[in-house]
Amino acid sequence: MRMTAPPDSPGRLDDAALIEQSRHRPESFATLYDRYFADIYRYVAARVGAQAADDLASETFLVAFRKRHHFDPGRGVVRHWLYGIATNLLAGHRRSEARRLEALARVPVENPAEGEHADRVAARVSAAGAGRRLAAELSRLPDGERDVLFLVAYGDLSYEEIAQALDIPPGTVASRLHRVRGRLRAALDDLTAESGGSDG
Amino acid sequence: MDELHDDQDSRHLVEPRHVDAVLLLLGTHEPPLAVVEAGRARLLAEAAATATVSDPGPGRKRLRGRLVGAGLSLAVAAAAAVAVPAVLSGSTISVEPWPTTSVTATSVPATAGPTARQILLAAAVAMERAPADGAYWRIGMVTQVMLTDPTRAYVLQEGRSEERWLAKRPDLRSWSIWQELGVKPATPRDEAAWRAAGAPTSWRYPKDMKTEQLFAVPFGPLEAAAGERTAARLHGRWKGTAGELTGELVTWQEVKAIPGEPGALRSYLEERAARRLAADPDPGADAEESRAQLLLQGCLDVISRLPASPEARASAYRILASLPGIRAEGETTDPLGRRGQALGYRQEIEPGLFTRVLLVVDPATGLPLAEVRTNTTTLADGRRAELRSSTSYQAIGWTDDRPELPAHRE
Question: Which of A106, A173, B282, B360 is deepest in the core (most CB within 10 A)?
């Protein structure tokens, strides 16, 4: 479900070498695209929806390509650098992201008579309720906290990697993640209770 | 650095079950092949342009406009991505002018046909003659929803019929009677793919199934067989209510107070929308657009769901006729095979993602026949398939009949 960088194998140019090579042979950059486009797409699509992701994910690689001269292998790996670029581009779509979460938070539950529906529908309804609470909580997260949460959830990045991707101190990442954890616990306590009860 | 990760694994700070909940809510979207290829072509074009110059200076804008243009037109072509409409009924809608691209040009009717305004005004006139009272307010409807099978090899259609009998008099009971109509392949082509897959009669969806847009994974298995016709007395929060208006239950007294005159009805619906937006603010959305969306939904609820007066329902049609985003799409057949006039509009289900909604109206009675929402999806073999979800109305109005209650109760 979560993608990590494929392991480097003998005979395979590593990412930093590809960047180096792309300075003289620009088309080499396409190999990085092939390696990481799906990862970046999943991350972006989760935040702004697949529709906007079509363009934003592709834009991420164009920006990376133009900035390839500035990539510093001493400050982390290419994959995390790409997540950082995607996150910067997403900052221009905060409103879209908030609207999408708000829409998810407001998806109505149609159950005309309480208890009248089949189990399946009841399960959908309670899950929808928990999903709405989660969506509402995500929409209330400060931008910086939402960034780190999604980099963990969709990028599987660690503290250090997030710090490098966003160019912020690791301590800041740690404190943001700590606050996110508390907020999610509060929002999802009910979810856990409900899903536990509706099993089977 | 690797040792550092072991100590400070960020997954320890965000609990895995919380990460899973986020993934379940927002889905894991795989890039469509066409998008992967378009992005790659965009990058290679930029690379090719760069290859001819030794070191592009910052801010240089070669080819950029053209390439971005190409990317955008692909995005437009994919504009009808997917969503499962079952969750859409009260979500935000956006009433906007239709785009003038070729995507919709083919569906614009010949100028000879009636306009949306003419159809809506004819429906309004017919609606004014509808009976204004009876023992029960009755709505009969069939809901059909399409979704892919768990392997995304073909499209399934799930059906359900439902009657609501709402009694205003306290000596009569209100009922809901429903029946699951079963699940079957949506089209002959889907049926062929279903047979090739061994003609299963039950479908179980993995909890972590890749989802698209607002698609919700069914929690339990889907069954091909139809269910039993079942009745339940309406109680709980439905006791004493006369239906829903923009997602909120309303009492008989509130419905009676819905104004009949078009200007007053519009003010009433707009004030309701403003109250709701004040109570439940939507910081991300354009306030004016949200109000327009709630106004349109309010009109549709007054017409197709609520026991409002014939005057109020006629006025709701007149308000719809005055909105800019609604287009006449000519005569059409609704999901139950009935002829009617189609009115189309777009609903924004997430930023930049629109679903196409057709409201099919019988101009002779003024009654809506069906609301049909259409999106498309890409199946596992790359085939584009339409996902339609519809509510078809078999009855809307007052009656002195009594419900035929099945033996099976809940």
Answer: A173
